[in-house]
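User: Structure please.
Assistant: Input sequence and predicted structure:
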Amino acid sequence: MDSLDYEEEQLEVLKRIEITAEKSRIELTLIRIISLVVFIFGFAPIMFFDASR
């Protein structure tokens, strides 16, 4: 019985790790998108203004 409880506990831990990994993956994607937007709005206007001169 003890080994069964241990296995169930391990499964719970694995599930928690998977959920955490999923969350961090989503957060990483959001950070990438935000930094890309900041990059575009930060540097694109400089390029356009330089081209218009």
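Residues 1-53 form one domain.
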